Every structure is written in C-alpha cells, then in structure tokens.
Sequence to fold (352 residues):
Amino acid sequence: MKTVHVSASKSYDVLIGSGLLEQAGSLIRAAAPAGRAMLVADDTVFSLYGAALIRALNAADYAVETFVFPHGEASKNGNTYLSLLNAMAEKGITRSDITVALGGGVTGDMAGFAAATYMRGMRWVQVPTTLLSAVDASVGGKTAIDLPSGKNLAGAFWQPSLVLCDCSTLATLPEAVFTDGCAEVIKYGVIADAALFEQLKNPIQPQLEDIIAVCVSIKSDVVQSDEFDTGRRKILNFGHTVGHAVEKCSGFSVSHGRAVAIGMAVASRAASSRGLCPAACAEEIQALLTAYSLPVTTEYGAEALVPAMLSDKKRAGGTIDMILPRKTGECGIFPTPVDALDGLLRAGLEVL
Ligand code: GLY
Fold:
C-alpha cells in the first residue's frame, strides 16, 4: 500500500493499494470515527462493491444507511443532490456521522457537496472506483453539482477525511472508462512530470499503483500550494477549458476524459502555433494521447466552442486563463483576452 499525505485546510491521507475495500471499515474508523455512515453510490457501482463496503463498515461497528442513484453525469444535478440531503435528514444522520462516497467523479462531487452543506458540514470519505476519480476528482476537496447552464456551477471546497483507492476495483472498469482516466494521467505528465510522461510510453496496467501514487503526489503538492484555485492549481485545468466546451457542445455524449484529451491536443497545438512550445512537444503529446486511443480532434468549430468556453466558470471578467504547455513536464497559465480566444482556438483546432 502507498500513502500520499495531503496537507490543506484539513490534513488527510490518500491510501492506494489492492484489496483495501475489505479493510475499509478499520481504515475509515482510524481516520473518521463515527457511529453511522451514509454510503452514497450510483446503481452500477453499488451492485459491484456496495455489499463488500457495507460488510467492511459493519465489521468496524458503523451502522450504514445507503443512497443509490442512477449512474451518469445527468444525475449530478440539483434534484439528486436535494434527494440525498432529504434522505440524510429522514434517516436522522447528524454532523457527527460520516458520508462515504463510493464511485467515480459524479458520486464524489455530489456526495462531497452534500457533506459540505448538510447541517453546515460533516466529515466524508472518498472511495474512488474509477481511474479518473482516483488520480483527480477524489483528491483536493472540489465538490459540485451541475446547473442547467453548465458543469460544476454550484459547489464548495470541502476536503475529505480520507481517500481510499482500492486498485483492484479499477481492474473491472470497462475499457472506455479506464481510457478516460488515462487522459487525466497523461495530463499530469504534461503539466508537471516529464519522467511520468516517458513512463506512460510503456503499458500502464503493470505500473498502475505507482502511477496513481505519482499523480496523487503531484495533485497533493499543487493543492497544498493553492487549495482554493486562485493561482497554481489552475494548471490542473490543462485541457479542461476546451474539454468542458466539447462536453457541453456534444450534450455530454463525449465523455470527460475524451473531451479533456481533445482539449489538451488543441491547447498543445495552439501553444506550438504561438511559439510557446516546440512543435515536437505538441506532436509528442498528440502521439501519446493517440497511443491511448484518445481523440485529438473534434467535429466542433471555434464558432460553437468559443461561446461554450466563455460561459465556463474559469472566465474572469475580460480574460480566460488558458493552460498551455512549454515542454512536456511544464506548463504555464496564460490569461487570454476574450477577443483573442477565437484566434488561439482556431490555431489549436488545425491538425498538425
Ligand atoms: N480537477 C481540477 C482540480 O481539482 O483542481
């Protein structure tokens, strides 16, 4: 088992290893002792791992209540969130109990927002079951739900008490879902770690535990230096501004990881076109994404993507922060005037 410590407004461990689900009760009790646990999962993940987690929690003397909702991004909305809060209230959950989020980013984001707001805040634990959530969403305390106008528009920074990543749950992921997570892993290589970028040229599965720990360490380091996303943390948004626009234009039929892959390829080509990184860097990023069967182009043009980018919450007045690579392992934050966005995007949409 590997442990990465996160020292933010709250300090907690991220535990990464195989078979941790069976030990979840005692591990959670050590970090967040409580009488009752509100287990939140979507229907797919609950049918796979719900029983095992309830067994483990019961064995550590937690009384477990459950809230199971239909899987998919469409559930990350105000209705599901309010149903969860109502379920907590009806079951008599108190602020001294804990919420346990079992699943991917949708579950973690929504359960975390419920934990942040129920009775003005209660402790919570993340048990990520997707690669994407293991390396990104479960660490750093961003919680949110989507509003009709866009993704993650209502939310809170609310750090968990523990993150428990059982790598054996990732082995059952459908290939498309696993590949989605690979996009976020590649992101860490580009923004912060050239050695990781090189490591990813070899098959990822045999080195999964190591690679997750490296990604979580990078995220921990970034979150520790800028928990509330006013500066350096923005580098984690590499690929996300264009990516969110692609997701939005597609009515969310393009998955998050694939949209981020497109966003990273577009940002890299845009950076190369402006002389911010060598052309070889953009080509290498594009080649690695392609090797992981991730897309590097989109059917949507600047006329559709720019308005979607402008409604993103990363916009600040007249500029939007674009995260662009300087070389593999290093990127910069480039505040881009809104009226320059169209040209930059068009340059990035041109295929090399
Ligand atoms: N997913 C980006 C962040 O946590 O800041």
User: Anything to note?
Assistant: The two ends are 42 Å apart (CA to CA). The mean pLDDT is 96.
